[in-house]
């Protein structure tokens, strides 16, 4: 599962309500000693806001029965959004004799439950049902040597269930009808499923737990115009007399019930291949020609990961399907990964972006998550940390060290942002809700911990250990101890210390580093400043690089104490001391350096992270005299992220330095090979604001890159040219998100009431994060143009605020309605929305709003 941007956007939306987040940091106070005999009582400090919460313990589910096989026959009532199902389940007691079976079955109508008897009529079984659990009297006691099969005739009503969810998976209805009545223009009719965490039991009865495994068969009956997709192998399609067809899919290798899936729609199926394995891409017909450009690296990924792990892709096929209104970024159902519609890109959009990261992430789950499955949601990082780290591995292999390092920094930043308000162990049995596990700890922190483990044991041992882990535990469920033992058995080293501090304990090291040179000796002092009431004193093996006379020497050190001093051999005063020279540490490092040292670091360190750090710090503290020559080089750097940051730093200078920097920026705006950099250069020129750039903005609006065209639109909109409105109006039929949001930013303030219909059309078509940001602009538009307060707009915003599947879009719509909170009818509407909202994140935020 890939949760992409959802938690980040949710945080941004939350900040829009609360005015930003503040973090309470524990502090110590000193005072003068009072001349009294009695010592003053110690004040008990409030725990930090991020302190781990003491929730109830959540063990793995007890195995009472073993679900061996599931055979499903399903058809659909599109109008009512019902699933008609006949489920045939084969089971046996796990160990102890059993005479009763309890199944997960959420929101069903149960029509009958029967025991299937060989060569005899089925036997009706007695049962009780509470709407969530189906309890069946088996009629006699079965031992662990006895198999039995039951048949359940049922109707599932997933759309009538109360909705839950998380940052990563915004709804948990299990099965979703998209545009079921065909009333939404431009949106296809689809049915798709999403089982993680325990939502598949909303459309078929099962033992909905990750430590269960089954083989399966699915018979899917639909109109003949639809294409179906499911796990495993397509066996046949049979036409029915009533004009429908029944497609038969068979999954012969066992997997967890949450990985069962279906997707139904009118798809173009683009064929590809890896070795002798079928690889297919299911996209809407409009994207048939670009499907291979979107997903075309999949065969190379299959080869790369198979060789890297020493375990060939273990399943019968690999398909990837794009669906509308998906409740997450993507999902790794066995043999079929499902993706959000954002992955569907046209030729022009592909110039600016690719989705290799999320594609690699879901593919890697087919080893870590599907082949070897976590036994409980408490152990979720055994799935998600590995999938997250696969993005780094693929980027490193395909696009090089700098791109991989940039990805690493982005993921580290996501975790550190979350750590301001939340710090939990990676493996955490104490959570309030299993959905809470889908956060930047399980993903971003987990991936960075694996990177540190790789650096510590070395590449050969790292991948040999993963091979041992996968081979030994294939088609089974595991906990973190089994990963540790695979590494210990491979390396011969007791790694309990590493797994304890990084997997079982909360937080991260917060280091302060100081170095001094005196009398031919380099003293390096390190303080661990993290609050050790909640976090450990870490053991940190890492490297320190020292440059003398232009020559680099690396020293291996191991930090084990809260305060530790290291003496490093040097022959002269160093030009630079680079702590954690491999930049592998998950944590924060405060290491003060002079301007000269930072300049040397930027120019001589080869790794991306210290170069970015040096440039950023110099931009904040160095004089213009130092910065201008440095920026002349940085703006021409070989790596685009350095050039991009250099543009930001140049923007902070009081003057544009016409003779030195401006010509370079102009060339970047004209011809930089990276669209994002060209766009940044254009925006910088617009900030500098000379009329001479007007022609450049006009040219940019015709650029092949949507990012550059959007920058041209924004920049031209800030000029005083008489034809601004006419030129911008030429883009109003464009559907690309970059262009739409650029226009919306301008129209929000200067569009006037005549842009009302344009905004309404865009909000009907926008999706996901694009809709979130569009709503921000529309709120400003309504504030500037109060005459656009119309029933149609209020009804649309109300519908979004109450019914949109993405919680952060509901939040943005609520926020936009607040523009008119002086109106009594809007106040009542907001109160109604708040009263009906069930998502705990929104309820907490809405309760902070005074209405």
Automatic annotation (TrEMBL):
This enzyme catalyses: Release of an N-terminal amino acid, Xaa-|-Yaa- from a peptide, amide or arylamide. Xaa is preferably Ala, but may be most amino acids including Pro (slow action). When a terminal hydrophobic residue is followed by a prolyl residue, the two may be released as an intact Xaa-Pro dipeptide
- Keyword Hydrolase listed? The answer is yes
Q: Could you tell me which Gene3D superfamilies the record lists for this protein? A: Leucine-rich Repeat Variant, Neutral Protease Domain 2, tricorn interacting facor f3 domain
Q: Which domain of life is it from?
A: Bacteria
**Entry EC number(s):** 3.4.11.2
Q: Which CDD domains match?
A: M1_APN_like (cd09603)
Q: What are the record keywords, sorted?
A: Aminopeptidase, Hydrolase, Metal-binding, Metalloprotease, Protease, Zinc
Using the record's annotation, list all stretches that form the Peptidase M1 membrane alanine aminopeptidase domain.
297-502
Every Aminopeptidase N-like N-terminal domain range: 69-259
A biological process (GO) of this protein is: proteolysis
- Keyword Zinc-finger in the entry? The reply is no
* MF (Gene Ontology): alanyl aminopeptidase activity; metalloaminopeptidase activity; peptide binding; zinc ion binding
Cofactor(s) required for function per UniProt = Zn(2+)
Q: Which GO terms describe its cellular component?
A: cytoplasm; extracellular space; membrane
Pfam family of the protein (one):
Peptidase_M1
- Family as reported in the entry's similarity comment: Belongs to the peptidase M1 family.
Protein name (record): Aminopeptidase N
Record organism: Pontibacter indicus
